[in-house]
Amino acid sequence: HLHQPTICGMPLKYVSLVTLAVQNAALSIVMHYSRVSIPPSLAYSPATAVLLNELLKGSISFVIAFLRSPVLNQHPLTRRKPTNTPFLWWSAFSDLCGEIFSPDCWKLSIPAILYVVQNSLQFVAISNLPVASFQVTYQMKILTTAAFSVVLLRKKLTSVKWFSLFFLAIGVGIVQIQNSAGKGHVGLGKSSATAVGSAHEFHVHVMSPLKGFGAVTAACFTSGLAGVYFEMVLKGSKADLWVRNVQLSLFSLIPALLPILWASPPPNSQGFLYDLFRNFGAWAWATVAIQVFGGLVTAVVIKYSDNILKGFATSLSIVLSFLASVALFDFRITPSFVIGASTVLAATWMYNQPTPSSSTLPSAASSP
Ligand code: C5P
């Protein structure tokens, strides 16, 4: 614990977890608002958002990997920070490119495709489900992550963990019952009517809970598989996390570009770039910014914490987005939502209880 990095005196581990919880809640609220607050004719393209996310995340990861380069930070002769001569910058750059295009980089192609599919499905889900229901149902990724860990990583789960997974499924089921029995559409209240402009522009965004539930279920599968696959690749080599992130983003560009290149231009097309950024306003940019930030924080959480604690952060975000939904989207608290969400939270807490063997592991692993 001597090497625990800190920010303003607080351990980075906990700062990144709390940041991830707030980011998760903010993303579902801003993404939901960016989709439902405007009439379908003025909607932006989710494909553009997914592509921008990968481009920005990849560029930022590249800069971080470059600045962390051993060539720049430790001169082999002096063992001191060198003066940044153009030669050093160039050798750091070529070193990094060599690492990025290493022979095993193709391994990242699988999680890259899965994450692009997941990020696209997220748009379908959030446009068709209330924010709080989306967040609760999305907790099912704990279930899929566990299943893929058992199958692919040959992990053993304790009976307490299986029991909590069973409860998690029940909790999600209860939330779904209230969701399908309830309204299929949501009339937007004061705040969104103001955002559109005048009173006559007020519109009702039709939501299809079945479509939303289908999308979120599929996203849970890609999340579990991509997460476990990424863990396998990360633990199977010594490559830097930021280099892996650049590789992930590079491979993501192919599936992210395909729907954009294949889409037939709209009848009133005004050029490729114009069509790409049609209706891409402040809320769309905010969605992309929060997504990019989330991808980077996820990387930090995986590095300084672990996937188990990451589960805590996402379940904390349920409470945050639930409270925000009540305030922003006229979300009505029903007894079945409270029972379902509490069951999910209790199951997440139970699942994250350390097992006797795993509680002894971190201290053993952290000793040099
Ligand atoms: O919570 P979950 O693991 O499903 O979230 C994955 C999200 O984080 C995806 O949007 C993915 O694009 C992003 N991610 C990332 N870099 C990683 C791992 C995940 O940007 N190394």
TrEMBL record:
It is found in: Membrane. Keywords: Membrane, Transmembrane, Transmembrane helix. The keyword Membrane applies. The keyword Aminoacyl-tRNA synthetase does not apply. The chain crosses the membrane at residues 136-153, 160-178, 212-230, 242-262, 282-302, 309-327. One of its GO terms (cellular component) is Golgi membrane. GO terms for molecular function: pyrimidine nucleotide-sugar transmembrane transporter activity. Its main location: membrane. It is a multi-pass membrane protein. This is UDP-galactose transporter. The chain holds residues 63 to 430 of 597 of the full protein.
